[in-house]
Amino acid sequence: MSEPYQSATEQGAFPPPTVPSFPQAPPVPMPGSEYGYGNGQFAGQPLPTGTHLDQRSGLVLPDGVELASTGRRIGAYFLAIPLAIITLGIGYVVWGLIIWRKGQTPALQVLGMRCWRPETQQVPGFWWMALREVVGRLADGILGPITEIVSFVLMMSSQDRKSLHDMIAGTVVLHDPNKVLSS
Question: For residue 113, what is the enclosing H or E element?
Fold first, then answer.
């Protein structure tokens, strides 16, 4: 082939194309990583001293506690009824107001359980418990049995066993038999 019929690329008029290189994007955090879940916040790092990773839920929990079982959670729900009756209602409310600062309700206290906020790795204080117990329980009962059933199904089916009022306050319920989280 003669030179007049060669393409411009063959003649060397244009340099070969280059593929631009872009910096690699940072890794996308896992959902819930900002709330103390083991695959996110502590991924690639050792867990804080005195904690362990709950394999089932992915939560980073203090040593000596475990996620409360669904049976224990159901037991607390039904235990609240006779406790309210025995204390004539008002006693139950006063008792609750006193122990909310410890992340408990009367039924949770009797059964050795406590609320925990994975986001802050702390027991919720009075106002978080007020949000859980007042606003959350109002949301639980707003449509009567429908939202109660939805809350129950959420608690039974979610890995971290959160019911509707737990989701509102960002809490999980832990079994704390040795009072590790007592303050």
Answer: strand 113-116
**Residue count of the chain:** 183
Measure CA 161 to chain center: 9
Burial class (CB in 10 A: 0-12, 13-18, 19+), 15: exposed
Backbone φ and ψ for 152, nearest 5 degrees, come out as -65, -45
Asked if residue 15 is part of any domain, the answer here is no
Residue 181 resides in a domain: no
For residues 115-136, give the mean pLDDT.
Answer: 96
**Residue 28 belongs to a domain:** no
Q: Which domain holds residue 157?
A: 60-173
Structural contact between residues 151 and 144, judged by C-beta atoms closer than 8 angstroms: no
Q: How many domains does the chain have?
A: 1
Contact 109, 170 (CB under 8 A): no
pLDDT tens track for 129-178? 999 999 999 998 888 899 999 999 999 999 999 999 999 999 999 999 99
**Residue 11 is assigned to a structural domain of this protein:** no
- Residue 144 Cα to chain centre, angstroms: 25
35 confidence band (pLDDT: 50, 70, 90): very low
C-beta neighbour count of 106 within 10 angstroms? 21
